[in-house]
Amino acid sequence: MASKQKVVAMLGLLNAATVWGLVWYPYRLLAHAGVSGELATLLTYTIAVGCGLLVAGPVWRELRVAGWWGIALTLAAGWTNVGYVLAILDGEVMRVLLLFYLAPLWTVLLSRILLGERLNRYGYAIVALSLGGAFVMLWRPGFGLPLPQNRAEWTGLSAGVAFAVTNVLVRRVQHLSVNFKAIAILFGGALLTAMPLWYRGNVGMQVQAVVPTAWWLILAVALALCATSFAMQFGLTRLPANQAIVLLMFELVVAAISSYLLAGEEMGGREIAGALLIVAASLFSGKLHAQVEESDISRQGA
Fold first, then answer.
1. CB contact at 8 A, 240 and 288
2. Of 7, 48, 267, 270, which has the highest C-beta tally within 10 A?
3. Residues near 186 by beta carbon (within 8 Å), at least 6 away in sequence
4. Do 111 and 85 contact (CB within 8 A), yes or no?
5. Distance between CA atoms of 57 and 128, rounded to whole angstroms?
6. 225, 26 contact by CB (below 8 A)
7. Where do runs of H (alpha helix) occur along 91-240?
8. Rounded-to-integer distance, Cα 241 and Cα 82, Å
9. Quick one: DSSP state of residue 289?
10. Of 220, 206, 251, 197, which Cα lies nearest the Cα of 26?
């Protein structure tokens, strides 16, 4: 039973990575339709929260036991999404992605401190393999070292740290249901996207200006994000944080392939080599830890 749950959890994370590797395209279509990245993020996450509540039921009953860990999870997940969008809008995409996908480094440290998860010799090699794949795909000679150079890049780096924090906190708050965590993460994205838009004003006018055809695309993205959030939380709850972060890096592979097929962006030998490294790391990710107690996985599924 435990092994079946682990396989389903891995598939859930790979599904989430696939969706995130494709979601750039509808957001790009929305931008062409006059819907800014921030407004599109706010609308899709807000609708996703509403759809999620219909499925999850009265998760607000868990607010009493969520405590500060629940608040931290909501804010970390919210900044992961908002920071990523803001960085991509304002900075050089390839540098932002490179800084964002340093996340496995922070996950190794945070999972050791907060969860007591220790990597074995295979684990360090696999994390290095996944990071190597990201560097091969994203690094360019003119970039220099992967150190932030401006506000957008600092934002991208902080979003990557928040990404690692989110993955670790999902494991830390085992007393909360998968449904609650899925809704909290969606709500965090909506809340922290609303704040800069509200500060600048005219949100209502921007919403009214959205054309009817764009609303259908917004709804489709919202439903995809909602389903992905539940699948992702199921996976994050049942797998070690370091293994989860490696599997989620499969997003880079999907993004490279989809950008080639949908946008005609070149996918050369560097991208293919990096993708193969990340796929290899994902396949061997089960060897990340010195031991993963099957009884613990069973208790989590109970």
1. yes
2. 48
3. 45, 48, 49, 52, 225, 226, 229
4. no
5. 41
6. no
7. 93-100, 103-110, 121-138, 151-172, 178-200, 203-208, 212-238
8. 22
9. B
10. 220
Q: What is the DSSP letter of 249?
A: T
User: Tell me, what DSSP letter sits at residue 210?
Assistant: S
Reported as a single tens digit per residue, the pLDDT across 26-40 is 988 998 899 988 899
pLDDT in tens, 8-28: 888 999 999 899 888 888 988
Is residue 289 within 8 Å of residue 138, measured between CB atoms? Answer: no
Q: What pLDDT, on a 0 to 100 scale, did the predictor assign at position 239?
A: 87
Question: CA torsion 4→6→11→15, rounded to 10°?
Answer: 140
Tell me the Ramachandran region of residue 201: left when phi exceeds 0, alpha when psi lies from -120 to 50, beta otherwise: left
**pLDDT tens, 207-225?**
999 999 999 999 999 999 9
Q: How far is CA 257 from CA 26, 72, 74, 262, 276, in A?
A: 15, 34, 31, 8, 12
DSSP SS3 for 35 = coil
